[in-house]
Amino acid sequence: MKRRALEKRLRMAGCYLKREGAEHALWVNPSTGAIEAVPRHTEIKEPLARKILRTLGA
Q1: Predicted pLDDT at 58
Q2: What is the band of 3 on the pLDDT scale with cuts at 50, 70, 90?
Q3: What Å distances lie between residue 51 and 7, 45, 58, CA to CA?
Q4: Quick one: 13 exposed, middle or buried, by C-beta within 10 A (0-12, 13-18, 19+)?
Protein backbone atom coordinates (compact mmCIF):
# COMPACT_ATOMS: atom_id res chain seq x y z
CA MET A 1 0.00 0.00 0.00
CA LYS A 2 1.27 3.47 -0.79
CA ARG A 3 1.97 5.65 2.24
CA ARG A 4 -0.26 8.42 0.92
CA ALA A 5 -3.20 6.02 0.59
CA LEU A 6 -2.64 4.81 4.16
CA GLU A 7 -2.46 8.38 5.46
CA LYS A 8 -5.68 9.24 3.62
CA ARG A 9 -7.48 6.30 5.27
CA LEU A 10 -6.17 7.36 8.67
CA ARG A 11 -7.39 10.95 8.17
CA MET A 12 -10.83 9.72 7.09
CA ALA A 13 -11.00 7.70 10.33
CA GLY A 14 -10.34 10.85 12.39
CA CYS A 15 -6.66 10.22 13.13
CA TYR A 16 -4.12 13.02 12.98
CA LEU A 17 -0.36 13.33 12.59
CA LYS A 18 1.27 14.01 15.96
CA ARG A 19 4.87 14.45 14.78
CA GLU A 20 7.32 13.54 12.03
CA GLY A 21 10.53 11.74 12.89
CA ALA A 22 13.53 10.83 10.77
CA GLU A 23 12.25 7.34 9.98
CA HIS A 24 8.67 7.22 11.29
CA ALA A 25 5.66 9.48 11.72
CA LEU A 26 3.46 9.17 14.82
CA TRP A 27 -0.29 9.06 14.22
CA VAL A 28 -2.91 9.36 16.96
CA ASN A 29 -6.56 8.38 17.15
CA PRO A 30 -8.04 10.96 19.57
CA SER A 31 -11.17 8.91 20.31
CA THR A 32 -9.21 5.86 21.54
CA GLY A 33 -5.89 7.48 22.45
CA ALA A 34 -4.00 4.91 20.36
CA ILE A 35 -0.62 5.96 18.96
CA GLU A 36 1.10 4.16 16.09
CA ALA A 37 4.34 4.70 14.20
CA VAL A 38 4.03 4.76 10.41
CA PRO A 39 7.27 4.26 8.43
CA ARG A 40 8.20 6.98 5.97
CA HIS A 41 8.72 4.58 3.06
CA THR A 42 6.74 5.25 -0.13
CA GLU A 43 5.51 1.65 -0.16
CA ILE A 44 4.31 -0.04 3.05
CA LYS A 45 3.78 -3.81 3.03
CA GLU A 46 0.16 -4.94 3.32
CA PRO A 47 0.46 -6.83 6.64
CA LEU A 48 2.02 -3.79 8.31
CA ALA A 49 -0.59 -1.44 6.81
CA ARG A 50 -3.39 -3.69 8.10
CA LYS A 51 -1.80 -3.75 11.57
CA ILE A 52 -1.53 0.05 11.64
CA LEU A 53 -5.16 0.46 10.55
CA ARG A 54 -6.34 -2.12 13.11
CA THR A 55 -4.38 -0.52 15.97
CA LEU A 56 -5.68 2.96 15.20
CA GLY A 57 -9.23 1.73 14.62
CA ALA A 58 -9.41 2.92 11.04
Answers
A1: 82
A2: very high
A3: 14, 10, 10
A4: middle
